[in-house]
Amino acid sequence: MLLRGSPSFSLLSVGNISGEITALTSPAAATAVRFPARNLVVSAAAESNRSLTGVIFEPFEEVKKELSMVPNVPQVSLARQKYTDESEAAINEQINVEYNVSYVYHAMFAYFDRDNVALKGLAKFFKESSEEEREHAEKLMEYQNKRGGKVKLQSILMPLSEFDNAEKGDALHAMELALSLEKLTNEKLLNLHHVAEKNNDVQLQEFVEGEFLGEQVEAIKKISEYVAQLRRVGKGHGVWHFDQMLLGNAV
């Protein structure tokens, strides 16, 4: 007897053929019919569901891994994903850097606002600089929470309160210190970016680049120009003119 048909055929009748019939009827498996009496085997290999339907992404299958990783305890962040402990620690370190620099700038504001120093333009500049560094720290704190990390504030050192310098004068001395602080902050930000790159955290790299690095280069350029100008004007009347410029007054 010759049996013809497609791979998905079914047997309607076996006639009077004697023997045992064994069939694998699962749609995903191969179909086989065996006739021991005549030692005849007929089989058909079925293709997988994936190749038949053309499906590439199976969300309900692939999401099982993510579901198993959702934390059950309230102390653990639900939003955290591919955010390493090293990145979390680096963000907290940068928060501390920003707060320390803000503290130094605030001390400079207090110094130049004294009645016996009375350089209101410099006082204004350093107060705004202090507020900007604090805003940077808060932005980093918000990012830490967004990624599912924990903000851990660290100790802040007491800054200097006197900025007079017999050779350079207080204005130039303070501005050179500010330039050094901006370069140090930039170096710390580059270290943070390196940590993100090492851990293949593209989102953190983008955050550092977009929010900080460009602005930091601009700040370094501006303060460098202020240092150059103060070196030209000396310690006397020229400092007053420079101070008026920072206030926005025409001189």
TrEMBL record:
Keywords: Chloroplast, Iron, Iron storage, Metal-binding, Oxidoreductase, Plastid, Transit peptide. Residues 81-234 form the Ferritin-like diiron domain. One of its GO terms (biological process) is response to oxidative stress. It is found in: Plastid, Chloroplast. Its EC number is 1.16.3.1. It is an enzyme of class 1 (oxidoreductase). Fe cation binds at E98, E133, H136, E182, Q216. Belongs to the ferritin family. Stores iron in a soluble, non-toxic, readily available form. Important for iron homeostasis. Iron is taken up in the ferrous form and deposited as ferric hydroxides after oxidation. GO terms for cellular component: chloroplast. This is Ferritin. The keyword Iron applies. GO terms for molecular function: ferric iron binding; ferrous iron binding; ferroxidase activity. Gene3D superfamilies: 1.20.1260.10. Oligomer of 24 subunits. There are two types of subunits: L (light) chain and H (heavy) chain. The major chain can be light or heavy, depending on the species and tissue type. The functional molecule forms a roughly spherical shell with a diameter of 12 nm and contains a central cavity into which the insoluble mineral iron core is deposited. InterPro entries: Ferritin, Ferritin-like, Ferritin-like_diiron, Ferritin-like_SF, Ferritin_DPS_dom. It catalyses: 4 Fe(2+) + O2 + 4 H(+) = 4 Fe(3+) + 2 H2O. It comes from the Eukaryota.
